[in-house]
Amino acid sequence: MAANTSAPRLTWRTQQRLFAGLLLAPALLLVVGTLGIPIVAGIVTSLQRIRINMPARNSNFVGLDNYQHMVTSTDFWHSLQVSVVYTIGSVVLTFVLGFGAALLLSRNTFITPIARLLTLLPWATPVVAGTLTWSIMLDYDSGIVNQVLAWLPWHISAVPWLIDANVSIWAVILVDAWHTFPLAMVLLLAGLQGIPKDLYESASVDGARPVQQFLYITLPSIAPISNVVLLLLAVWAFRRFDVVYLLTRGGPGDSTMTIIMQTFDRAFRYYDLSSSATLGVATLLISAVLAGVYFLSLRRQTQQ
Amino acid sequence: MNWKLLGSIGSAALMAAGLALATAPGAVAQDKTVSFGTWMWTQPGSGDWLKLAGAKFEKDNPGVKLDVRNLPVNDYMTQVVVEVSSGNPADVVSSAVNLAELQGSGQLVPLNDRIAASGMKDKIEDACWAAATFDGQIMAVPISGRTLALLYNEQKLKAAGIDKPPTTPDEFLADARKLTIKDASGKVTQYGASMDHINEEPTYEMLMMWSIAFGGRLTDGTKPTVTDPGVVKALSFMKTLYDEELIPRGRSEDDQRALFAAGTSAMELDGPWQVPFVAKVNPDMVASIKATRLPWDGPATGGPNVLLSLGKTGNQDLAWKFIEAVVSPEVESQYAKYADTVPCVKGAITDEAMQAKPYLAAELDEFRDNPVRNLPAGFENVASEFESIVLKAVTNTLQGGGDPAAELQKAQTELESTFN
Amino acid sequence: MTMSNAAAAPVNSTAQASNAFPYRRVLGRIGVAIAIVAVVLFAVFPIYWMIVTAVSTLGASRSASQSLLPASFTLDNFVYVFTEVPFALWIGNSAIVASLVAVGATVVGAMAGYSIARFNYRWTGVFMLVILATQLMPPTAIIIPLYRLALATGLLNTYTGLVIANLTHVLPIAIFLLRGFFLSIPPEIEQAALVDGCTQVGMLVRVTMRMAAPGLATVFIYAFVVTWNDLLFARTLSSSGSMWTAPVGLASFQGEYYTLFEPLMAASLVFALPVTVVFLVLQRHFVHGLTVGGVKG
């Protein structure tokens, strides 16, 4: 074994630890250095009062005042609710679309390569371009979507996609899903294609119907990658800013004011940096707890 | 365990990183630069005019380059906050109505002495200076201003049997009703009018305007007065327009502009920049777009919308020269040829320019009649927060179906408790 | 895996077909075909609409009457993009930054992902959580401190600054993805290579990375596309127009009073082209790598 020729002072175990650590070091340095510092700065700011337009009221330390203020404000809870609805809706829609597309495109027929390529396009399209296109398409008066709906045999009346408080959140979820589902599809496709064909063959020989094959072979095999995809989708959906910003800016009213959008508004519309930082830290804590729970439950699953 | 290989990989990586850092293009350190933050540089019209000023500045000051930091307007405003809060403003900072909120940051330099020395004071309208002065300190040089006028589609008015545009709010409402056309299924195919009413700043100005029309004000200069009967009447008026679907509901200001330009709405309270826009996107219709005074007996809202300040960067002397170039007679005389807003420099609009752009007349008249500044008087430095509370009342009334008086009372209470 | 079936005879779908018309199979096939068309239409229609808008005359996108086929045809918008704006500069900047980030993310991400996958020490789990946690802070809340950091380290308005910011943004997901891929590669293969006389690094490069090639390609594509599309960092960390990337340039088509959508769509298509090309090239590798070789039993 190669280890026998290494320097005698270090045991194999220590060597391996060093190797592991070295591999990890660049990533650790980058992430902690570049993201860690701003995050710490954000935490510090949340303990101060910094309002650019009212410097007389600024203060270097106000303790947990900002947090108290935030927790007692209806705005915070409302936008948290909007964020939760948005995240769940987006994850479900994106996953269903991605998984469905992956299933449909997992066989190698003659149209599959083209279909795969075309289905990947939404993700490659710059978000600014795609979202603005959707905003024209979903326009109440002049949008093509409403026009097509009117042509259909069911004569669906025009939907106030982006201008009605009850509908707008679903419109934003739709556009978000459109941008993201190709990536989910790619990952799930990789998982699907990694399932050995013999499993299906032997199951067919044993008499299993396609539905049973799906339930007992496909789903379990794809569970690991699905978990990854679901977690990623949730993180991305929760952090989503540009789609909401470009489509509705948080409106109509407050119906699409996610926490992320509110963080932006507080800082750049109301010049209130400390309140924005407070929201940011709160978001960080909440999602860290949720992700931690999810991750731990995953750990328990794989250990079984 | 091949340490040598690992070591060589590691050192190669370090060298590459060092090289990258060393050779990466940093902020080009020229002998002399003046950084200029703006959102207008690539805009057709005013952008071209600014470029004239830039050219003159560089010609008069050889060896100095103007480093233009241009971003689209919303991004620019965001970036200004980033720069100002990090203590890194540009040498020359452009601002609009947010000057009041920016100047409190301490990153802008008072200009009283420079203005006195240059003799600029008399060359610029007093109303413009008022907007740039805070506690006696002049924090910016106003470049241009704007008010709004009543824009209407003459053809559509004639088709509805209206031979002259409305001059009172009642006439406006009646005309809007006549001009709104619905199809068989009840969907509106032509809106009688336009009205900003969603949760954005133009809605505040819209409420201000209609309040003026009904004789009310949102503040009295020291305290909020949003329960003033004039304001309540104005919000009720807006509610009528909304409920009867005489205006495109739920649409942003930009969208409503686009609808007017496409011929989907017939009247609009907006500025003269609409006319070149219509000329671009709907050239067949532009001949019937006319502008006239606002439909009420009283002032309009408006004020300076482009102001230039000096950032606290240590480069003020050189940066000042750029501002001087902008307001120089050479450059100002070209203003009307390019831009569609009102220049703050006196006499910059010549008669021949007026001939070429007849739609400017209405706006100029409004501007000369001392428009009310489109900011809450007495609360300029917390304008966004003040406005957002009022906007809540508006959206609760319109989209939420609430009662105007009740919602305004709620807003008044919240305003009083927030700003005491 | 044994599946006993009470209906004695082994049900083989091809055997069935020889007797009756395979309604089920044909319907199934048609159903799948329709579903595929629906999905593709959903994905592609907005892009088609972008093209329609890009070749329309100004204002067509907002007119009250819309049709599926372009009502007018003009190349003026593209002419505008090619002559009036420095699109080559913007694309060039995007290409440089995106390529550097993609390479960096693949290399650094692979190293870290492998470390976490193979060496399951307790602190690797904590590290994963920490890395994930950094993703959970809203980007809008950290741009001001990030700007300050860039200002303090002199990396404002530099390629290096943009690369570092985007790399850091992309790394957590890259590491997560690659960890998953490495976990799916059985250690026996690596042990076999070591037994055969490879050094640890050699084994990594020659055996492991080869098998993880699809994962590496995925991370490369992901990092490239995300960086190409990034607007927030590109706008915040640049202070002069010469450092603008494509999305910032695209945003500049939005005016103060109104936005001309037709030239904006034309510019979008121009800027989306390089990304699509990179996509095309790598996508074939990716699909190929999945079906060839692999772990059979």
Question: Could you please describe the fold and organization of this structure?
Answer:
The complex is a heterotrimer of chains A (304), B (420) and C (297). Chain A has twelve helices and no strands. Chain A has 304 residues and is mostly helical. In chain A, 72% of the residues lie in helices and 0% in strands. Chain B is α+β, with helices and mostly antiparallel strands. In chain B, strands 1, 2, 3, 6, 12, 13 and 14 form a seven-stranded mixed sheet that branches. Chain B has a three-stranded antiparallel sheet with strand order 10-7-11. A two-stranded antiparallel sheet of chain B has the order 4-5. In chain B, helix 18 packs antiparallel against helix 19 (404-418). Residues 18-30 of chain B have low confidence and may be disordered. Chain C is an all-alpha fold and 297 residues long. Chain C has two domains: 2-54; 77-295, MetI-like fold, CATH 1.10.3720.10. Chains A and C meet through helix 1, helix 3, helix 4, helix 5 and helix 6 of A and helix 2, helix 4, helix 5, helix 6 and helix 7 of C.
Give descriptors for this structure.
heterotrimer; A: 304 residues; mainly alpha; 12 helices; flat; B: 420 residues; alpha+beta; seven-stranded mixed β-sheet; three-stranded antiparallel β-sheet; 19 helices; 14 strands; 15% strand
- Low-pLDDT residue spans of chain B: 18-30
The description of the largest β-sheet of chain C is: none
Structural class of chain B: alpha+beta
CATH fold assignment of the largest domain in chain C: MetI-like fold
Number of helices of chain B: 19
What portion of residues of chain B belong to β-strands? Answer: 5-15%
Distance between the termini of chain B: 71 Å
Query: What's the level 1 CATH class of the largest domain in chain C?
Result: Mainly Alpha
Quaternary state reads heterotrimer
Query: What does the overall shape of chain C look like?
Result: flat
Largest interface: A-C, 110 and 110 residues
* Share of β-strand residues of chain C: under 5%
